[in-house]
Structures are given as structure tokens and as C-alpha cells.
Amino acid sequence: MRIINELYGRDFITYECSADEETSFTGNVGKIMTFFGYEETYAPQPAALWDIVFDGELEKRKDMFVRQLQCGEIEMFLPIVCGNGDVRWFLNRGHRHGDVLVGLFASVGRVKELFDQQHDRITRYKERLKHTETMVSTLQVLSEQDSLTKLYNSDTTRRLCTEYLAASHSTCALIMLDLDGFKQVNDVLGHMEGDRVITCVAEGIKKIFRSGDVVGRVGGDEFLVLMKDVPDVDIVKRKCSSIVEASSKLAAELDCEFFGCSVGAVVSVRCGDYDELFRVADTIMYNVKNNGGHDFKVISDTDQEYKKLINAKEASHHEY
């Protein structure tokens, strides 16, 4: 609609001529010639549409015109000799009404210019839209991340785990880990070094687990991992052992004998409720910590111990 409005009255004119090979104009000749850059008093005025078509293209265009005229609809591009001697291309569209052909001329150059302008606007809009989508995507990632470790934050970890557990029917494992002696690291080495330790632990955890597993920081020095599609309990035990070993290496680097990691894990055959698995894994982890720490324990939700922990009044160190 905008392009028609732009063309109308500027690069757009209607005409009527006889619907035969002679194409004699039946009126509006003066305005037609003015449209093509001639004086309105141009003499001799053309008697037919073909009189203003560039000679080099006349015959093949005329044959095409005759074939279209038989069908009643005209649509072709014509090279017109304008008043300044230039040959410009125009779109000629028309419809036959008995012995009369009613049509219009529109400047191809102007149509192309308007479409190019429209294309440029669409391109710029797409670029702005892509930039906006990138910003939204970036903000989405930032809103899901823990600012220090770049792992999932607590809310996102909970959401992703809940969604997976609700949709999956395969065995999985929820692993909780807490750093032993981390307060002493902050007190002895300072908070900047404490932040570095947290970052190192986060990087170590990501290396141990698959990219598809959910790895998040759910507290100051607490982390959670949801292992998806677990084939057997032994794999979970090896992963937990790797976490403890990695913390031992980090303790050696820090020269801190008191530093370590306590790990508690639940292998869920039935992919149970997130809060329930969290409470049990958290309780197991703190039992490990209270028994000296720097170790791990793994149980299954089919074990009697799991049922006892579920039935316990204080099944978790955390409050819900």
C-alpha cells in the first residue's frame, strides 16, 4: 500500500486504448506525454501506445502484447523513449474490457527504488531485532548464572532439576557437596582467595561431569549436580570419588590441610521429587561432614536407609 501511495501521482499514470494491434489511444494523450517528459502540446501527438515504445524492442514486445491481449490481461515491461531522449523502462499492466484496453504505466526505476528502500528498512529492522534477541539471550543467561562461578544459580538449578525429574523415567543421581574448612580459608587466606577457591572447585566439577548434567551453586560453598541417565551406582561413586580427589589436590596447592569436600548422593531409580531427593542427599552430605568430612557416601532410593531418612523429622540441614 505504501509503494502504491508513493507511486500514485508521481511515477504512475493510467491510459485507455483500443484493444487491437493498433492500440490507438482513446484519450488522456496529453497527460500521458507529460508523464513521459514531453510538453503537453507535443506534436505530432502519438496515436497509439506503440508510438512511444523504443524501436529496438518494438516487434518482440508487440508479439508478446498480442498474445496477452487474447487472454485479456496485459503485464509486460516496455522501454519508453522519454522527452529528454533517455530510454526508461516502465511496467505496463492492463485489462481488456471488450474493445477497450484500460491500463497503467509505472516507472520500473521508481518501483525498484521503493522496494530497495523497503528492503533496507527490513534489513535494518532484522539487524535491530537480532541485536535485541542477542541482548535478551544474554540477559537470560546472566539471570540463570551464579555471578562468581558461572554455574547455574540456586533458582535455575531447582527449576532445571524439577523439569527433568518430572519428564524423565530413567535413573538419575542427585549429588550434594559442601566444602570442608572453607571458613578457615577465608579467615586465613582472605576472601579474594576464598572466591578463587570457589571458582576452582566449580571448574573442577564441570570437568568431572557431562555437559548435559545440571551443575549449580546452591549456597556459598555448596554445589549440586544432577546426573542424567545413570547406568549404574558405581559410576556415581566414581564421580563422587573424583570430586573428593580434586579437592585434595586443591588443598595441596593451597597448603591447607584442613580444606576438603564432603559429598552425599542419592541414585534415584524412579526419578523422584526434587525436594525429597535434595533433603536426603543434603542429609547424607552433612552426616559425612559430621563424621570427619573429606569423603562421600552414595545410597539409592530403593535402600532402607533412604526410607528412614524420608521418615525422619529433621531430614535435612536446610529449612524449606
Provide a descriptive summary of the structure in words.
Helices cover 48% and strands 22% of the residues. It has 320 residues and is of the alpha+beta class. The protein folds into 2 domains: 112 residues, Beta-Lactamase (2-Layer Sandwich), CATH 3.30.450; 166 residues, Reverse transcriptase/Diguanylate cyclase domain (Alpha-Beta Plaits), CATH 3.30.70.270. The strands form 2 sheets. Strands 2-1-5-4-3 form a 5-stranded antiparallel β-sheet. The chain has a 5-stranded mixed β-sheet with strand order 7-8-6-9-10, with helices on both faces. Strand 4 and strand 5 form a beta hairpin. The longest helix has 37 residues. The protein is rod-shaped. The two termini are 60 Å apart. The model has no long low-confidence stretch (mean pLDDT 85).
What does this entry show, briefly?
By secondary structure, this protein is of the alpha+beta class.
